[in-house]
Amino acid sequence: MNKSPLFALLLVGCLHYSPLLIGAPVPWDQLSQEQQQVLSGVKDDWASLPEAKQQQLLRGVERYSAMTPEQRADARAKHERWKSLSEEQRIQIKERYQRFKALPSDQQKKIRDAHQRFKALPPEQQARIREKWSGMSPEQRQRVMLRLREMTPEQREAFRERMRQRRDR
């Protein structure tokens, strides 16, 4: 039986890269140079990381590799901001994210849309809104949120228009 050299090459490749393909722990020396460069911060801990964490990091490297230079710079800045947070702040953010992911998809979309509208505002207006919001008690915040939730889409749009007009004065 004559086995082709291509088959042998494929077999060797599969055996060599099988940890990457099946989700098994990956030895550091089997990572590509780019993967090692991006993950250099965890090199010393790599072998002790759980398999799931290694796979999560490798997926992150794939996403990072597909980014434009501007997106990479933004990702690095966000990572630095994350590292500067206290452990308590990180836990709060993770919990908030889990609550968000537990919401129905239509509610998630509403939140994403509202966030996009907020990010589209001028920085001065964002600052005013943040200042006003942080000055409210939790009860006041809940009342505002309840009032907004109870509005019809038309009422919400009219409310937004009134806010735009106030801003532009």
Describe it.
With 169 residues, the chain is an all-alpha fold. The chain has one domain. Helices cover 76% and strands 0% of the residues. This is DUF3106 domain-containing protein.
Write the layout of secondary structure elements.
Elements: H1 5-22, H2 33-38, H3 51-65, H4 69-84, H5 87-102, H6 105-120, H7 123-134, H8 138-150, H9 153-168
How many structural domains in the coordinates? 1
Please state the structural category. mainly alpha
DSSP helix count?
Answer: 9
Helical proportion? over 70%
How many strand segments? 0
- In the predicted model, the low-confidence regions spanning at least 5 consecutive residues are none
The largest sheet, given as strand count, sense and whether it forms a barrel, is: none
Order of helices and strands: HHHHHHHHH
Radius of gyration of CA atoms, rounded to a whole number: 24 Å
Mean pLDDT across the residues is: 85
N-C termini distance: 85 Å
What gross morphology would you assign?
Answer: elongated
How large is the share of residues in beta strands? under 5%
Salient structural properties:
elongated; mainly alpha; DUF3106 domain-containing protein; DUF3106; 169 residues; single chain
Quick structural summary:
The protein is mainly alpha-helical and 169 residues long.
